[in-house]
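Quarterly update from the structural biology core.
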Amino acid sequence: MAPGTYQTVVLAQRPEDSIVPGETFRLESKPRPTEDDLKDGDVLIETLYLSVDPAMRGWLKDRRSYLPPVPIGGVMRGTVIGKVVATKSSKFSVGEYVNANSGWTEVAIVKDKELQKLEVPANGKVTDGLGVLGLTGLTAYFGLLDVGKVKAGDFVVVSGAAGATGSVVAQIAKLKGARVLGLAGSEEKVQWLKDLGLDDALNYKDPEFAKRFREATKDFIDVFFDNVGGEILDAALSRAAQHARFVICGAISQYNSSKPEGPKNYMNIIAMRIRMQGFIVFDYATQYPTARKELAQWLDEGKIQRKETIVKGGLEAAEGALIDLYNGINTGKLLVEIKPDEDKPSKSRL
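Predicted structure, tokenized:
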């Protein structure tokens, strides 16, 4: 990269199925902005970490959704943790950490109203702002508590339980007095879930999974938190208790298919009087501070554990990390380190 430039990743063409390396995205170099380029209320940030999320595949599709599709030639959408390097805003100072939706770019000029100051609680770290204290943790919090309405004594099953959202869901369910079964894609992930304190965990890639799942759900499912869709959702529908609550958070097994498959056991929704509801975490934006405070408290008290998979290599590694996400590379939150953080923030209140 030439001096005085920075890199950004743009959408080059929309994939029909899986993301195509070297074709779906394009890496571009641009002149690096300076403080002289800022207008009143602008903040220049340098990206440290990029969040890699299953929903990103949906943003590449040209269809109606909760967010408009990423335009061809537009910077790939993404949430980051950045550091302020220049500012013309009284709300932010140089050196502060921020959350921004500035996308796949090494630097960005962002309006102060579009930034959130990142505060690191006791027992926390900067990257928690994209994980347990970021949209990941908030999705788990509101999905389970508001949509799933979990209560003590419930039998909760979580698909994608070793992922960023699923692992937080499973732990909150335990905190609320539920019995929890986690589903994951390897024996290592299954063991991690058991180490977190789940009552049981199963490897869905096990040849005996169908039999073991039936045995593990003999008391039937009260709450199913789904991050996977496909055959896993179908299996859960067949094991639902009467008046079960199905929280439809994601369908990662179907995101890369041009012909996604819906559930075959949908008639059980009628027979078992199941309430199946999708949700988007942005709908709860006004409640984020309250949720973050409780999540931070649980984290500080050791009631919630988290794990991260951090891919190094800068912005050039982002495409590969996203592809690998759909192949289950991560345990916990998947991040790309865009630039090593040379400073460590001091602890502060949330």
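Residues 98 and 117 are 5 Å apart (CA to CA).
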